[in-house]
Amino acid sequence: MKTKYLIVGNSVAGVNCIEGIRRIDKQGKIVVISDEDIYNYSRPLISYYLAGKISRDEMSFKGKEFYKENNVELVLNTTAERIDIEKKEVVTDKFVISFDTLCISTGGKPFIPDVEGYLPGMRGVFTFINFSDAENLRVYIEEKKIRKGVILGGGLIGLKCAEGLIARGLEVSIIEMADRLLASTFDKEASKTVEALLKKKRCNVFTEETVKKIERKKNSLSGIILTSGQKIDTELLVIAVGVKPNIKIVKDTPVKCNRGILVNEYMMTSIPSIYAAGDVAEGKDIVLNRNSVIAIWPVAARQGKVAGMNMAGAGITYEGLFPMNAVDIIGIPVISFGITNPEETDKYEVLSKKDGYVYKKIVLENNRIVGCIFLGNVERSGIFSGLIKNRVNVGSFKDDLLKEGFGLLVLPDEYRKHMVVGEGIEV
Amino acid sequence: MKPKRIIIKEEYCIGCRLCEVYCITQHSPSRNIIKTYKGKGPKPVSGIYFEEKGSTSFAIQCRHCDEAPCVENCLTGAMYKDKKTGMVLHNKKRCIGCWMCVMVCPVGVIKIDYKEKKIVSKCDLCIDSEFPACVEHCPNEAIELVNEEGKKIEK
Amino acid sequence: MAKAKNITEFIIERDERRCIKCQACVRVCASDVHSYDDESQELLSDNSRCVGCHFCEDICPTGALTIKRNPSATKDNAHWTRDYIYRIVKQSTTGGILLTGMGNDKQYKNYFEHMVLNAAQVTNPSIDPLREPMELRTFIGRRPDRIRYEKIKENKYILKESISNLLHLEIPVMFSAMSFGSISLNACKSLAKAAFLSGTYWNTGEGGMHRNLYPYAERAIVQIASGRFGVNTEYLERAAAVEIKIGQGAKPGIGGHLPGEKVSEEISLTRMIPEGTDAISPAPHHDIYSIEDLRQLIFAIKEVTSYKKPVGVKIAAVHNVAPIASGIVRAGADFVTIDGIRGGTGAAPLVIRDNVGIPIELAVAVVDQRLRDEGIRNQASIIAAGGFKTSADIVKAIALGADVVYIGSAALIALGCHLCQKCYTGKCNWGIATQDSYLTKRLNPDIGAERLCNLLKAWALEIKEMLGGMGINAIESLRGNREQLRGIDLTETELKLLGIKYAGEAW
After folding, report:
1. Which positions in chain A touch B150 (Cβ < 8 Å)?
2. Which of A254, B73, C138, C142 has a CB 3.0–4.6 Å from the CB of C172, allowing a cystine?
3. A113 CB near a chain B CB, below 8 Å?
């Protein structure tokens, strides 16, 4: 088999890569290889699926016709195993395919910590990152009429999973190693609010704890023992302690990796015909000002699009992004950007405001915004993403940032003009 | 393709906020201003953000960006770019309220309905009628509709 | 006695069935009449503050507002009318001169309304302007005393006479002098742009020329008045013509005063005076005490502009207007502007505006006659100003002897003015007579210019219709053609001064 463009991975980076290519090259053959058996869907929606809020079809963000409309050959249920760089070939479990340019968008895979008693493939222990995870979880809960579940990991994935389980009527316990939930995304104040909300929903939160031992009956989970010695009887454990870039495909190749596959501003790896995008790639983080793996949708989408356009010869650059998360946790909208809980306090300036459960916080470094939290009221928070991305000096209007009715009007004329260039405000 | 868009001439905005009044009326079932405001049914939310500071004011609505971050980041495809017109439109039925669009819109013009857990309002350039209501009724032509080349379109 | 309250001139009626409480009225009223009470969720109005500008009525999306005259009546008294009673109330409160804006609102006889136009019947044909060419083109400036030419061969002549530079108008209507300061820059821009697009001229007034108006400078008449604000060589060179302002119809014999708080950075730069200082134009030019002095200034300006631009003089129509105009022409002016008693202003003492000067109709007639009698009518054009409100007035003024008419109030009405006469407060709700940035932005000069162009276009069409009816196909042929006018309800003296016959009298 032979193709001009080969994309491994069919999630958001892969789909955007297709769009990127097709923006430049309407004809060239595109083949997409996916190890799943479902056309495009939003991974962040698996918690909504688990909760029963949406159907399988409603999870698709581009529709079934997307591949036909873009003249793409989609190969499902196929795992790409390795790359032969010399021959420009990808070897899968079913066939070998040669390519002109390749985009690796294999995403991340769940990290499984070493726990005593854990057997790979044992019943009752799940991960929660893709559709089959959610589907397996759903079937398991329904078949075994599970009423109680434990989630290991109090990050965003763990919490979204908890929300799905709560919606199904389960009593949920969350085990988090750090001293609070969402420690990497939020600060103490925001974590506290979320924790209080969860507790209202009959959710038990154990912080500074982890699972020391998994107890099983035959091959099935029967309970867990925490480091404190406390024992929880459960037939359901979801491991959600994090994901790591799925870089298996480039193992034993000259493609340079750090945590993820290293890419330059064109999303090109160290091998010119090979690109990488999404959770597997390690690209520019403009808040940290270095390369890092940012496993979020906006990064995957942008990187995928840039990679695709460059694979077709556009020569555009990826300007870099930063961590950002928008979630609705137990009915409370939360948006966070960049550094939300700075440790070196002398380097950063923090502005914050709390009004009822509405909480806003802005972290500044040399008068430039490097992080924000918006909890409870996220209206117009996107303006801040623009300010971070464009490294706008906010020194002159710092006092307005948290004011009621904050908007474009207080921004510097030049920036305001830039934002709506040609299509907006004449200043 | 660049869509038609609404441009703002803030130096002529008189701050009357009639753009909002007409946006609400246009998106109400009756499209009758008095019925919309004084009738029993719920009133739509305008797709406009009005800002005012000192003597400067303007009304801003969706810019219908070429490279629209809200579309790129929509988890369900509810926010989409109309292939024919290039407009950024929102399909409320598909919206699940993940707030991704709100997070990435640098102009901050997407309005939220927290109760319904959906994006409640966003400028659709009055797709159901001939001409955007806000532009038509702006008493001082502080907002104008322009075509792909940036030329003013008269009603 | 009890202290006098604000006099409530107008009553605001709000139709509650139509009011949607959008609060647009609250946001736009510069007089702070409307307010919204959060507690009762009611819209309130303070009638005593209303100046009757009608901006809220215009902006209200449902037509819920009507501004009505306060019906509260004093006992009928032909002598002590309400107006005079209130003046005394005001002055006994403030102890000051009453100020006002815009033109004289008293019922002096309007001679235009006592003159009727002729039309061609049987003995000469009328002309249909839609089918036949009709010319409104007009020139301003000095015409030669004679035409000298040389015959070079059979049927071939060349002109030997040198013709001075003339202003070239596509319609015999110009925008009269209104300074940046008395009106907003957006208002100036509207006038300048409309003049530019319509092929006529605008006038800077005594305020200098703001740099944003330079694109329209070739269609500008620049003014030199007693304060000499904004005058420099560039200012004179940039313009199409120069007008020396001696007087103004609304306030003959009175100077001007732009208070310091209105002298913003832009105005200070344009007028070349320090920011925040009062801009005072003295009542007289202190270097002009005679016709000879005036001649010096006229020729000084001509020297500076290399005799390339017409230089004119503007005076208020007063008792001696004819001999003064004659002197002005003899002093070398290329045009004389005469401003009648109904001329407008941004601010003037009420008693002066309403009581000083004479109507423009009489002034134009006597000046034209005097210049003809003296054989110098060709040396200067006559520009008439002061309260022109319809195209018929313009046609009648030209038949009386004017070359061109200036419009001021009419132009401002096209820009939104509702003649509330509160120009002097600086709080013009229509963004015209104000420098408050919250108000000036209400006048979008693109809309303003378009409306002025429309007005001129409409008047041009009407003038052509009237000319055609008289069987005349060029405005040139109407000038001083008083046989086209007849008087109604006029005395012998009035007929004599106007130089017209009574209706019914044949040629």
Report:
1. 422-423
2. C138
3. no
